[in-house]
Amino acid sequence: MFDRRMTVRVLVGVLVAGCWAALLPAANEKPDRRGGTIIGIVTAKGQNFLEVKAEGEEKARRYVPHWVGGAPKDGGGLDKKMLAEIARVKVGSRVKLRWEFEERPRVVKVEVLKAPEDKDEPRKGTVAGTLTAKDKNWIEVKADGEEKARRYFYYRGGTKELRQVVEDALVGSRVRIEWLFSERPRVLKLDVVKAPAKDR
Fold first, then answer.
1. CB atoms within 10 A of CB 95
2. C or N: which end of the chain has fewer Cβ atoms within 10 Å?
3. Span 126-139, mean pLDDT?
4. What secondary structure letter does DSSP report for 24?
C-alpha cells in the first residue's frame, strides 16, 4: 500500500515538473520579437525616427532604428545605415516598412512605394481691379471686393511688353492682371480694360 502511494506521488511529481519544463523557455533561447511588415504613409520624421500611419490604423506609430555597437562610450549608437535611409524618405511617401519590437518599435527596412506629389507648384490666378500705383519694379492693384490694394512685383524683371504696358497705363485705370506667387505676388501680364475718366 505504502509502495503504491509513493509510486503515485513520484509519478505526479515527474508529470508536474515536465509540464513546467515545457512551458519555460530554455536558458539559451532568445525570446521571440514581435514585429511584422506594414504599408502606410509617412506622416512625420526626424533625424532618428519615422512616423507611419499604417493602412487601417487610426494613428501613426513612431519607428526608430536599432541600437548597435554597445554603450555610447564604446562607440555604440543608432544604426547609421538606417539613419541614412530615414533621411532619404520624404513626408507623405507611401512606404513598406519591416519592423521589430525591442524596447520600442524598430525599423528594420523601409521601401518607398510612391513618393509624395510635388505640391510646390506656384499659386497663380487672374485679378480685375483698379491700378492704384506703379513704380519701375512693381504695380499696386485694388482688386474688386478688396479693401486694400496689393503690390505685385515683376516676375524675373518683367518682359519688355509688360513694362511698356505698365508705363503707358494711367493710375486709376481699370485693369486685369495675371499673377503668380513666387516668394511674393508677381505680375505676369497686365491689360488695361478702361482708362480713368478725364477731369473736365
1. 22
2. C
3. 94
4. S
Angle, alpha carbons 104-106-107 (nearest 5°): 155
**Is residue 126 within a helix (H) or strand (E), and if so which, with residue range?**
strand 123-134
Distance CA 92, CA 95 (A): 9
For the stretch 22-63, pLDDT in tens is 444 443 334 445 889 999 999 998 889 999 999 989 899 999
What domains are there in the chain, each with its CATH number? 35-114 (2.40.50.140), 123-194 (2.40.50.140)
95, 102, 105, 97: which is closest to 62 by C-alpha?
105
One-letter identity of residue 119? K
- Rounded to an integer, what distance in angstroms lies between the CA atom of residue 178 and that of residue 187? 6
Q: Residue 141, class by beta-carbon neighbours within 10 Å (0-12 exposed, 13-18 middle, 19+ buried)?
A: buried
